[in-house]
Amino acid sequence: MTARPRVRAVRLGPRSLAALALVSAVGVAAFGWPFLAPPASRLSAHAQDAPWLFAGLLVLLVAVVTATISESGLGPKAVAMLGVLAATGAALRPIGAGTAGIEPMFFLMVLSGRVLGPGFGFVLGSVTMFASALLTGGVGPWMPFQMLAMGWFTMGAGLLPGPDRLRGRTELLLLALYGFLAAFAYGTVMNLAGWPFMGTLASSIAFDPHAGIPANLARFVAYCLATSLGWDLGRAAVTVVLTLVLGPAVLRALRRATRRAAFEAPVTFEAPVTAPPP
Hints:
Layout: H1 14-36, H2 42-45, H3 50-71, H4 76-92, H5 105-116, H6 118-136, H7 143-158, H8 168-194, H9 213-227, H10 229-261
């Protein structure tokens, strides 16, 4: 049986790809500046201010790239799908609040990105994290970093190989493996966003603006092991379990919804039929 080609809710054009590349490059700098800026730089001298500056810049850039992708083809059907999935993801996030690693929204992001493609995935990840921050009261300088990281997380699922051919157990194992690794990657990059705020409160693992890259890298690894390893492991394990258990049903539902929505079919309006004159 030949697999149906994947219907994309959003097709990325040159302008959207350029916007994505720009915000991703700035995001890499925003997350990794403690390792990119030399100790004598002005940025390192303002270690406590830099995360705030990057947060303000990121929220603008994420808004720009979301608007650019939306302008390039996010029609009313895709907007409706986006609203449903973002609301579902935002509602799932508080379920694991305060419990180590129980975050069921991640598996939904993986499956949605897989079915609906990288462009839709980036928008969905960013919007879902924004909505969940408003729902849980988690608005702060970390929110733009969360939006970008979740956008990358969901977009990555849409870039996995075999979207039109791979089905069944092999696809589930691929998605579970991606979810496991990406859950750890999400936790690591989010640690980069919060790590510089520690200052000298914990001298053995805090970011030291006067230290070199090897010393700060060792501090960062120690920080991850001491603060988030258990949480990241729980998040990865929950994502894998939910993907393997609920994945087949959710994938079928998402693919059926995208086929019925017919995102790529143009919307036409028929002229009203008028009765002939008597």
